[in-house]
Amino acid sequence: GQFTIPRDLIRAACTHFVDMAPDTIHEHTFCCGGGGGLLTDDLIELRVKGALPRAQALQQVIEQHGVTHMAAICAICKSQFTKVLPQYGMGMDMIISVHQLVGDALVFGNEH
After folding, report:
1. CA 112, CA 98: separation in Å to the nearest integer?
2. What is the pLDDT of residue 112?
3. What is the pTM assigned to this prediction?
4. Which of 21, 79, 93, 110 is most deeply packed, by most CB within 10 A?
C-alpha cells in the first residue's frame, strides 16, 4: 500500500500530526473492519469488533498526545469509523478524510 504520500499531505495540511504506534501502521496496519462488503448495519456487531484494534490505537494517541481527529484516505474507513467510534466512547466527528483536510487547507488568493 501507499503510506508516504497520504502522511505528507496530512503534514502539509495540519499544524499537528501524530502517527499511531509503529506496530499498528504501514505494513502492520489494521483493517477498519468495514471493508470486504461488511459496511452494512446488519453486521454492526462484527464491524464494531473489527474496528477494535484501530480504536485502541486511536485511544492511545488521544491519551498520549491529545489527538482530536483521525484522518482516513479511504471512504470505507471514514464511513466505518463514523458509525463505530461512538461504540468506543469517541465522537463520530473524530474521523476526517485526507481529502477534506487538504480542501480545508487550500487558500485561493486574497479575499477582500
Report:
1. 29
2. 62
3. 0.87
4. 79
